[in-house]
Amino acid sequence: MGIWQQAILSGLSLGSFYTLLGLGFSLIFGVTRAFNLAHGDFILLAGYLAFALWHFWHLPFSWILILCMVSLPVAMLALRELLHRLPEPFELNSLVVTFGLAIVLQNLFLGLFSADYRLLLLPTTVVLDLPACSLMMTANQAMLLLGSLAATAAVYLFLYRTFAGKALRATIQNREGAALAGIRVDQMQLLAFGLGGVLIGLAGPLMAVNMYLHPAGGLEPTLIAIILTIAAGVGRTGSLLWVGWLLGAAESLTALAVGSSWRELVSALVLLLILVGRPQAGAKHDIAS
Amino acid sequence: MEPDTVRKVFSWLAALLLIVGPLLFPEAEVYLLVFGLACFYAALAMAWNILALSGLLSLGHGAFFGLGAYAAVLLQQKLLMPVYPAVVAGGMVGALYGLLWGLVFKKLRGAYFALATLASLEIPRVIVDNWESLTSGSMGIVGIGRLPALDLGILTLPVGAGLRSQYYFLFGWMAFVTVLHRQALRSRWGWALRAIRENEVAAEVLGVNIYGCRLAALGLSAFLTGVCGGLYAHLMGLIEPAMVFSLQLAAFPLILSFFGGRFAVFGPLIGALLLYPLDQLVLQPLLPQGHAAVYGLVIILTIFFFPQGLATWFRPQSKTS
Amino acid sequence: MHPLRELIIRIFPTYKREGAGLAHGRRFFSLPSAFFSVPLFLALILVCVWTGLAFAAGEAIRLGEVNPLTGNLALHGLEIHQGIEAAVAEANAQGGIGGRPLVLLSRDDQSRPDVALNQTQDLLYREKVVGLLGGYVDSLVGPISSLAARQQTPYVAAASLQQSLTAQKNPFFFRVSSMAGIVQPLSRFLSDVVKPQTVAILYTATPGSTEFAASVRDLLIQQGIRVLVFEKFRPGTPDFSMLLLKVREAKAEVLISGGFFPDNLLLVRQLREQQVPLQAFVAPWGVAYEKFLRELRQNSEGLLGMCAWNPGITYPGTEAASEAFVQAFQARYGHLPNSTTMHGYAAAKAMLAAISAVVEQGQPLSGPAIAQELRRIDLLLPMGRLRFSEYGDPLEYQQVIVQIQNGVLQVVYPPEQATGRLIYPLPHSGQE
Known about the structure:
The structure holds three protein chains of three kinds. By secondary structure, chain A is mainly α.
């Protein structure tokens, strides 16, 4: 039975990574309805920043994380300034403009970092090793699991326990209503982009540690973020983690039981079940009409 | 002259240039290929937009495209069907899958629908990729012949013989899809689609058959995309699962439609005929390594100047058009 | 007017959606001159047409190259591009061919087949190139080769493997690599030297990798080696934990990976992290590269890869030519060439040799004449002897097996080219 537990453990760790990729997107999309197709490229930006700090200045990883989480909000606020000037219809135009932006960023990475694949290597250790039931967990998996759990918990606490968070939630649920209640929607947008930037700044270095960086590699994280955000339901940070875990576990179990060439099929079916089975999957959060 | 007349004259001149132009440049085979493919993408973009006009943005049109391509090729190879009937049958297979979407995703709207289509793109891809005895799996199918002569009764068009006839064939295909696209905007059915898009409840009160109208748009859109897939297999000469079941095949029409203007009859067409040749004929030769960045900038700037797409320039500025 | 339309206009007087954007209707730009931009677009295209045509005439010999310079395959596309560029620069430094300089026109196919077609067409018709080079994977090489045949222009592909492409008997298609040159040395190495009881094969869902995996599996089974795991994954898979768990559970001695560069990076990283007990790890693509060593550092120790050439690993008798190439290349680009670069270089060398043969005979530079000469060439290049079969397959293409030992690539098979001894089983770094 050991290998099944191992599959679930790996799946949870992978799912946590997915959640982390989706968190920032979900917040920004919830507050501003900006469909940011360059999300993954901003994660790559954070990843490349982390790589540069590690490769050229040999900073310890904890410093790198902090520096990325501080500097990415700046980039995201710049993005907000760009999107702020978009003419109507806003949601669809944000989709097309960020698509163009993703292409520009990709080529920027290609120019700055060449087409090479980059890895950020940390000393590898195994934190949990139970050979009896063939259960093991590497330091990276543990970091992903804990990192995204901590990030989700922090976002959750912020949204439900602080005044600013409640205002943010109100804005996600009903922008006009929130504005009528005296919430400064503009400031909430700044807050969402800033917070999203912090989360992207966390996701980027973790991606560099767990996968690899490549100029064209922004598409996958963007897709994962979109999938999780929509499947969880817009602005529902708690469900994001559940959906992430469900997908991660489904993928791992399929790869083990049937074969990894079928894993996309199973995750597609799981997604469809979530979407079709959801009772209120109606028109509330239309991004397009 | 009235601005409207200028626009009309300009549109007709552009159309004339596209039809007669190739006859004036005996050497310019490049333009025949590039503009032929631009026509192909214009048809694909309009096929996509027919569904989008009903208010549903799809990210999974690659599924119809891939099913159309594989069905067309396999029907020829396994059942020895002639090329054009097989391509049409490929479109039917795409349409069947589209109708299945209609049944299963009946209640989904907006982003939820888009995500569901994205997920249902993976299903046929994985099956084709793994069903090696039928589809030869990840190896793809190579050595697909060019399009044969098309016998229309009164005249025979030697489609695959040269690039010129291929261009006119693709131009004709685009014109055909444009007529359908126009119907989806201007006919009674088109107005019903618009009503559904703007306000479903109000449309239902008016007696519009919401489900039926949407299903028709979905089926037509899927069929046309499937036919495009079958044609693509013959244009490229080979297909692979990752190549035809691709997110790109919904993303590209989306960008072209928005760029050109998705509520205008010629919007997606203008997007395709400008953006694609611009990239292929101007940016690529001038900047082999930096063209993509310029392409991205062009898209960003266009949205700032023409938030409703380039085609808004071609029609009167009033909102009721 | 339809009554329905009238009603709808009554009910929906405003076409605009209710404001949902960030800034309600605030426009950044307003531009009446947008009126002119569309005809400007078309005019721009036309101008480029004519300037292109005007440039096309001239004394220089024009060669075209289509490679993935952006997108997923950009890494290897750029390597091939530099190899071709180096060969052309070398020929120009020697005074060109018959006193005529060479011009190389590079195009990007963005890793997409339709773009490859357009750019090839542009090179053939507008730029009037006499020969085509480059191309990284079969789905991009295939469309280029059929277009080359239509225009009767020879095409020497730098990296193409699928057997069905040369089975089409296209007289204008040539390639410097072949599947047999990878599969045969690998399976001989496994059955003669390593002699494992069991292997696991992981490969990607691409034509080249699938064909490779199936051929290797069949050859190994013939030798009585059991293939315990045979699985395919999507290129760019983010997590290999489950595949590695299967390999671990099956207790396979040797893991053969048909993945490409990034897949192998991730696979090896996770293999090391999870300390999968393997006797050997072999991958034909991606491992035998300086960049692979550089990124993985000590994690790459003991891995087995394959290459046709590398600085210091060259075909017997070509040491001087190889060294000269490395020197010139490093002076030009500031980094070392690798096996993929050499494929580009070899393809260009073949094309240049055929062109000079045609020029020497005093014939005009026509496609059929160059293709005829390509079938006759017999070159000794750092990558090995290069001769083509009637339908363009390289007859002598053989890769060697290398092992990463103390951060250096050492040839361990075949014995006549070996520079080091095989370390077997795989040392496990980070454990002791």
